[in-house]
């Protein structure tokens, strides 16, 4: 397993380089000019110097090479320095001081390092998106298990109906619906997420929970609908296998047969869905963050697209691609943990 992990990690590096090249070229071919918002009264020579200051005067291969160096070499140095200097877990280590003031990936819109802006927005996304995904998985797994064990029951029919709604209703519609019902009509929850709110005591924590309810509800609905259907189908496939009848014939209790033998084998395909759903839920949060005004990575991505901030768009898109590759690797490793028959070495 260790050899497989090392081999897959080594394979992922050129894959990520190729993905970053594709994203970079697509953004280069996309319409739009970062100088379009500059007033027409600005002289041409000043406009040209502004383009050179943004790095647009250099050939495409040189710009891509500089971005690769900044992203894969300089930014990791900044991150390591942060861990050994200011982080809570590793701040006790000696300061590495690897970063020596080299040029970082700079946002054209804010003139600040891109990764610093992403790190500032990341807690808001993790509060909402991370909580929504955890809640969705915790609800989906029991629903899928019970629906399969009690096939065609009232519970199964209700779960199927809810899953159809989760699959069919897009976030931009369900978000508006929950705002109208729970915020406008009932007044239970705020319709706008206050990103400046800080949790200092129990009362502020309850305020944070209230403003998280509706965006978490919208995102968790999609997660629950998808994973519960996969869980149900996988459980139904394993409940009819010979080893289940053998386990029951040996006198094992029903809960042990279902929750240990059947569930472990049924989780193998579901692990893939859960692992790959982590980066996809970040992509799905782009719409939800716009609706509820969550100042997270999704809203940052939309703002950067509207402003033609190519370094920001490129970096955020690359982070999404990195998450997909990472959780693919995690899913492959979990296969061998769940099923002893799967071995890579």
Task: Give structural notes.
- With 345 residues, the protein is mainly α.
- It has 11 helices and no strands.
- It has helices at residues 2-29, 44-53, 60-85, 114-149, 154-168, 171-185, 202-239, 242-249, 254-292, 297-306, 310-338.
- The longest helix is centred in the last third of the chain and has 39 residues, at 254-292.
- It is globular and about 85 Å long.
- The chain starts with a helix and ends in a 7-residue tail after the last helix.
- The mean pLDDT is 78.
What's a concise summary of this model?
With 345 residues, this protein is an all-alpha fold.
Tell me the CATH architecture of the largest domain.
Orthogonal Bundle
Cα gyration radius (Å): 24 Å
End-to-end C-alpha gap? 6 Å
The total tally of domains equals 2
Extended strand count: 0
Q: Classify the helix fraction into a percent range.
A: over 70%
Structural class: mainly alpha
CATH superfamily of the largest domain: MetI-like
**H/E series, N to C?**
HHHHHHHHHHH
Q: Under the CATH scheme, which class of the largest domain?
A: Mainly Alpha
The chain-level mean pLDDT equals 78
Largest sheet: none
**What is the overall silhouette?**
globular
Strand percent estimate: under 5%
The helix count comes to 11
Looking at the structure, the CATH topology of the largest domain is MetI-like fold
Keywords:
345 residues; mainly alpha; MetI-like fold; 2 domains; 11 helices; 74% helix
Topology diagram in text:
Layout: H1 2-29, H2 44-53, H3 60-85, H4 114-149, H5 154-168, H6 171-185, H7 202-239, H8 242-249, H9 254-292, H10 297-306, H11 310-338
Helix pairs in contact: 1-11, 4-5, 4-7, 4-9, 5-7, 6-7, 6-9, 7-9, 9-10, 9-11, 10-11
